[in-house]
Amino acid sequence: MKTxxxxxxxALKAFIFLLVGIYALSVxxxxxxxxxxxxxxxxxxxxxxxxxxxxxxxxxxxxETFNETLRKAKVNAVRRYVAxxxxxVADAYDAKRAEIEDNIDEYILNEKERVFCExxxxxxxxxxxxxxxxxxxxxxxxxxxIRMARRDRSRLTSIFVxxxxxxxxxxxxxxxxxxxxxxxxxxxxxxxxxxxxxxxAEGMSVTTRKTxxxxxxKYRADKIEYGAFRPENLEIAINSVFTSLGYRVxxxxxxxxxxxxxxxxxxxxxxYASEENIGSKTLNSAFKAIKVVExxxxxxxxxxxxxxxxxxxxxxxxxxxxxxxxxxxxxxxIYDEPFYDTVASYGPVQxxxxxxxxxxxxxxxxxxxxxxxxxxxxxxxxxxxxx
Length: 387
Description:
By secondary structure, the protein is an alpha+beta fold. It has helices at residues 9-32, 60-83, 87-95, 97-102, 134-141, 143-148, 234-244, 252-258, 265-274, 280-297, 358-383; strands spanning 37-46, 108-116, 123-132, 155-169, 174-193, 199-218, 223-229, 248-249, 303-311, 315-316, 322-336, 339-354. Strands 4, 7, 8, 9, 10, 11 and 12 form a 7-stranded mixed beta sheet that branches. The protein has a 3-stranded antiparallel beta sheet with strand order 1-3-2, with helices on one face. The protein has a two-stranded antiparallel sheet with strand order 5-6. Strand 10 and strand 11 form a beta hairpin. Helix 7 packs parallel to helix 11.
């Protein structure tokens, strides 16, 4: 007689929860797994002998050249990645350059080589593609220590102002014409005595006119009227960069709400729309507002970012698509009693982007300019140990 084994309901629930937990953990790990970083590089050299069949070389000297060219291609692949990774990574790489490049094979996974060496010629070219071992590189550059220290970063708030061209009035050059005429008269007279003693006289008059023309053209600068506006997602784009670097971001709206009227974004926007620079009185209102919030909330907000964007009118690029150019200037100030000192700055730099429509081109250019400015400011602060 078979007996049925009953699993207690509580144990069954625990088992189910365990399975769900394992599944959720695996999903989380897959979602948060670091995406592979693919790199590529190349290098070339001139051989002492000629290439053989199947891109091969011969002789000890040319084999050494081949190996060195291959190593340089790998080094160039890693250097290319570093060059696009910001100032802090580049500086850290420079400090560890010899260690990394002497052991370059340890930093490239799943390597593939492409050799070009035409038979009978001496030109050697090698291309390398592969996956960068970012974990090993980060450990070598000690970037993981920087990331672990993010929880100790300071609070930061930022002010964003943007303006766009509403009206452009172009003036034609004012021309001034000058004309001068000079008149020169010459007269001559001759006399002749006839055979009978009579005298005959005749005269001639010649007048010459010389005219000189010239002048100048006076030009006036175009009169451009700006209007302030708040680009959609601008604050999110900038704050996401600072958050990714570990800074604890305080929204500027919170400063405005808790500052007892000391600070109004509208004043910044109106002033920037009418004048390129923001006056010291308006700027000081932000400093005072931050101090009020610090006292009220019993916290410290030592870092203040200021972003200024000039958005140009849509134009057409070479492909016929709408394109917009954004001129961006930005800086980060730190409170060092009793003053605010500039610890990072960027621009003025022009960022251009295109889109299917003029609106899309404008939004793309604004967000690209904002992210680039925030990234460069963040890199400078990391380099200067401003946490």
